[in-house]
Queue: 2 jobs
Job 1
Amino acid sequence: VDEEEHKDTAAAAAEIQQHLEKQDNIPLNIAITGESGSGKSSFVNSFRGVSDDDEGAAPTGVKQTTSEVTPYPHPNYSNVTLWDLPGIGTTKFPAKKYLKLVGFEKFDFFIIISNTRFTENDVKLAQETQKMKKKFYFVRSKIDNDINAERRKRDFSAERTLTEIRDDCVHSLQGIESPRVFLVSSFKQHWCDFSLLQETLERELPMKKRDALLFVMLNINPEITRKKKKAFQSKLKYWATLSAAGAAVPVPGLSANVDAAVLVGAVKHYVHAFGLDIPSLKRLSVSTGVPYTDLCAVITSPLAAAEITTELLLKVMTQLVGVVKLIAAEEVSRLTLTAGIPAAMGLSFTITYTILNAIISSLMMLTGCLQRVMVCEQISSST
């Protein structure tokens, strides 16, 4: 391979890397607003997959804790930020000037939260948001408190209780055409409408913003994980091409290390998005009541609940017999130097594509196992 071809290969690889980085850094800004005590901060934490007492969590408590517009970036995806806004209608943030004071232009959509009935100020905010051509969504929070309070009654019916709450909320939103109200618990995300809310937000976002939201969505139903798998697979060709570019350099042993280095970044992304990293699993344990050790017992992949390193990935790669044969063939073709490099590039592409695709499928299966655990917990807690 002459110098010009090396330059062309390097330029193509740099362009692909730039494209991937650009895709991973599309900004998404979500405004969370509501009156003091409505559960905004807990919702912000829940949506970001953090506990109220985690470092970097939005402060919660009985006192008014949100007095300024406060950004809370997602811990794994800093391009996604939830903004905890002060309640509308306070002295500092009067209803008429609210949108201007909080800087509405930067937000992609608004989530309006209440833990009781929605107020006149909530309706005004929704109407003004609509005038500004922004989407808004009503969230009735702390549903777990309502269910637990009603459970003490002899004729308790969870379904009837939820219907009554939803109807009451809709009734309080006079002036809003066909209002949608999502009933959620920030501590029991697999209850009620948390999953429906996530899916609705993702579906109604502009196409270029959807993946940004998709990757931070909680894995509380199979449809979400299927969408994540599809999004990951759509980018496999880029990661594989980066690997092939590494194979263009005729140095024996180099490509396997390049492949592993390329894989580390991708696999970390997959593990975080599927909620299989240690912090995510521990939070799942807290929210479901299932012991952390029991959740880990469901997990069979060495990549889950582990630090993703080059050494770990090389170990996983050697466990895939077919991939090992491809790596050996790649190194043999590389030894023929110039004549073998096109073949080595093709093999390197195939190796990386095959490994990543297998990892995506296996991690999705593990997430499905955890979802079944959540369903079992939901059934047992409702009986």
Job 2
Amino acid sequence: MRIRNFFFVFLMILLSAAPAFSAGVQAAGELIKVEAEGFAPIKGGDKNGAREAAKRSAYRDALEKALGAYVTGITEMQNFEVVKDKVFSQTTGIVKKFDIVREKVGDDGILYITAICHVAQAALDGVLGPAVLDALGNPRVMVLLDERIGDKRSFLSTAESETMRVFEKAGYLLVDSTQASILKNIDLDAVRESADPEVFRQLARDFQADVLIYGKAYASSFANQVVSGVRIYGVRSTVQLKAVLANTAYQLGSDAVEEKTKGV
């Protein structure tokens, strides 16, 4: 039974349909509620124009506060301000609800507003992950996948190798985990079996990887029968991937795919 080929096929489906680094189209999901403030000068008596400018200022403040409340793993990045600027440039679709609760004009001729805002966490993730990668420039990537066929470890790391090939083709710098483990005399199989993200991240940090991609790839039989003299096999193949920053564990993205296929 050619189970190993299914790993290759379905990994490609996963990477092409929902890559770990793709912003994609995401549902709003959980909403982050914040109180935001904005302000803008009233020029030439144009109060409506000042209000629109103040709203844009409040949108930025809402995202600033949502980032502070939600993101803990990237605020120490050297280029965090660049990341924020990229997020602020894409407020549409991230701030799902914006209700002005207070408005006043100060003695200085500036219009001030206070608004209750709801920021979509999933949409923020979709913009933030790619923004972090852009700020990193050309990040070094390490891939660690635990591959199994049934309850046995796969002899060849087909899914891991294919994942590395895809990212290498996309122009990313790769850290070869196999060579890294040899240099440090590390039992890579034991590392994979530990299923401990912190152990994975420590290995990635030891070899100056910026991004760690880890997860599982496994296949199992769900059918084995003879039809009209021909034996039909059914294979369930699953690939799960997660991408995090090696230094901070901030999750850039994750996805999984499961497929059932029958063949001879």
